[in-house]
Amino acid sequence: MSKLYLKPKPNLRDFQNYVGAMLKERGFEKETVPEVFMMLFEECGELARSARKTQKHIKAYKGKRRSEISYEFADVFIYILQLCNYFDIDLEKAFREKEEINKKRIWK
To answer: Domain 12-59+67-103, CATH 1.10.287.1080 — does that match?
Structure first.
């Protein structure tokens, strides 16, 4: 039985901490950066396939049941947080700092 807990209204740091604890609990904390990147790209492909199946003008194989696109987004999110934890990046802080830079740019 899992002892993991994520509070009802988590912030981004809470998600990062949860993913760190989740990886330890499930025995995945020793995965290397190349391994995590490969899994992230695999999940991105699954997300793309799931998104493609929602588009009527794009041909897609309909033989398999359409996967839940929300779950594919969640998988990608988990691997991104895992990489942030590996590189000791506070994603919320990085997002806020980068957005301040972006606000000063001229977008055409």
So the answer is: yes
